[in-house]
Automatic annotation (TrEMBL):
The lineage of its organism: Bacteria, Pseudomonadati, Pseudomonadota, Alphaproteobacteria, Hyphomicrobiales. It comes from the Bacteria. This is FixG.
Amino acid sequence: MNKTVNPKDLTSEDDVGPLYAARKKVYPQSVSGTFRRIKWGLMA
């Protein structure tokens, strides 16, 4: 239980990838319809 561990034994050479995935870009989409026109009519 009190055995010392070498830190080199804990690191894996196989896990050399990034820790987080790249952020995906969000692109605006065109939306049309009756509700959309009513909403913009009330907002304007």
